[in-house]
Specification:
alpha/beta, Helicase, Ruva Protein, domain 3, five-stranded parallel sheet, 14 strands
Length: 456
């Protein structure tokens, strides 16, 4: 019977002892190190199969230790330990080659499964270190960070996937309801990619007409149409060598979808009114608040284009599917909008937030917290769950805030319409016919909107 060796690296003695007591067995020997320097020394002297490495340690932290491990032992599986539910450092670790990560406090079954899987992986890996490139160089200090944070398992999987795919050159499709943070995830992918220092261009396809969008994306020649007095470079040219984000990609007309498909297939395009083929070296990230398979099935989106952009797919869960993250998000937004203030969110307020459906997702929660802080002058903050629950001033604040974030009128109105339908349905016990009567709309219109907003 072969005995494998696990090295657990953590500055907390109690944590190391817990792992040793839990995982030591007939087929697994567990050794320990209190810091990164000691761990690196032990790796030179011991035959280690798996490393369990704390992300936050004094001296050289987990990221730096991981970088040194991967530089010398690129095939050694390293599982990261983190006490934080945020994403940026975890993404950095996964991008650098970490095998997996476990969040503290950990579940005994979860850590056993992950470690056993890493041990099996180590047993299958052959000696290819001389043929492998060293891990990507570590980046500098955190230059932004993601505000899509959370402890929920579904979000941890998203963070992990972002770290795994960031260094790829393949197109990325990010799907999720409005307000789930699709653009923030796109920002993280770009920030951790090989094109991080190159141009990053964002285009909202739903905010522009077909002709204007075509000119924005592909550019135009002088005289291409009335008013085209000068040559205009499109985003495929300005983003050359970098990353192009296309938001609301389902808003593209069939004709523009054909042109986009050509770029992805051949790497070339034409300016509007132009006859010269131009090269495009751009990594594409596409965002959609609808499932593209449904759009393909309905005939609104080309199947061949869908397959081209659906190389790497990330689906962001709605807030109602990760309600355990609401207290964490509320604390984050309180610190963001009221830094230095001694703020308390009463238990009854937090309970109400936990029971709300949040059709506008994280964006709606952020607006609610911001609104509550703006209308509160004391220590205790009341956060209303309704968009207009704090009066006309709050409603105006909400609209202004949304417009300042670059959201289109259609997006804002869609959120409002979706919310009204959901709440009326709930009030009528799910009776669609009665809901249509209350809203004074035809039942067919209600059914169409329920399908569009994915209301069950």
């Amino acid at each position: 019977m072969t005995v494998k060796t696990l090295l657990v690296v953590d500055d907390e003695n109690a944590m190391r002892r817990n792992v040793i007591d839990l995982l030591t067995g007939p087929t697994l020997r567990v050794i320990e190190a209190p810091d990164g320097e000691t761990a690196l020394t032990m790796l030179q002297a011991e035959d280690v199969d798996v490393v369990l490495l704390d992300l936050h340690m004094p001296g050289i932290d987990g990221i730096e230790t991981l970088a040194r491990i991967k530089a010398h032992w690129p095939e050694l599986p390293v599982i990261m330990f983190t006490a934080y539910g945020t994403s940026e450092r975890v993404i950095e670790a996964m991008k650098m080659g970490a095998y997996d990560y476990i969040e503290k406090p950990f579940d005994a079954t979860d850590i056993q499964i992950v470690v056993n899987r890493a041990v099996d992986y180590a047993g299958l890996v052959t000696e290819l270190s001389s043929l492998r490139h060293q891990a990507p160089e570590r980046k500098g200090p955190n230059d932004g960070g993601i505000t899509v944070i959370g402890h929920a398992r579904c979000m941890q999987q998203v963070f992990k996937k972002v770290g795994q795919v960031s260094s790829s050159e393949a197109p990325v499709l990010i799907e999720g309801e409005s307000g789930t943070g699709k653009e923030l995830i796109s920002d993280a992918i770009q920030r951790h990619s090989a094109r991080a220092r190159s141009v990053y261009v964002k285009v909202n396809c739903g905010a522009l007409s077909e002709s204007l969008l075509e000119s924005e994306i592909f550019g135009h020649e002088r005289g291409a149409f009335t008013g085209a007095t000068n040559i205009r470079l499109g985003h495929f040219e300005t983003a050359n060598g970098g990353t192009l984000l296309l938001d609301e990609i389902t808003s593209m007309s069939p004709r523009l979808q054909v042109q986009l498909l050509r770029v992805l297939q051949q790497g070339t395009f034409f300016r509007v009114g132009g006859e010269k083929s131009r090269q495009a070296d751009v990594r594409l990230i596409a965002l959609s608040n609808r499932h593209l398979e449904d759009e393909v099935e309905a005939g609104r989106f080309r199947a061949d284009l869908f397959y081209r952009i659906n190389v790497i797919r990330i689906i962001l869960p709605p807030l109602r599917e990760r309600m355990e993250d609401i207290p964490l998000l509320v604390r984050h937004f309180v610190e963001k909008y009221a830094p230095g203030r001694d703020i308390v969110v009463p238990d009854q307020v937090m309970a109400r937030l936990m029971n709300h459906n949040w059709p506008g997702n994280v964006r709606e929660l952020e607006n609610a917290v911001q609104r509550g802080l703006a209308l509160s002058h004391g220590k205790y903050v009341n956060i209303e769950t309704g968009m207009t629950g704090s009066g006309d001033d709050a409603t105006g604040m909400f609209y202004r805030s949304e417009l300042q974030k670059g959201r289109s009128l259609k997006e804002i109105l869609d959120d409002i319409e979706s919310r009204i339908i959901r709440e009326t349905l709930a009030e009528q016990g799910g009776n669609r016919s009665r809901t249509a009567e209350v809203l004074r709309v035809h039942r067919r219109y209600l059914y169409t909107k329920m399908k569009e907003y994915r209301i069950r």
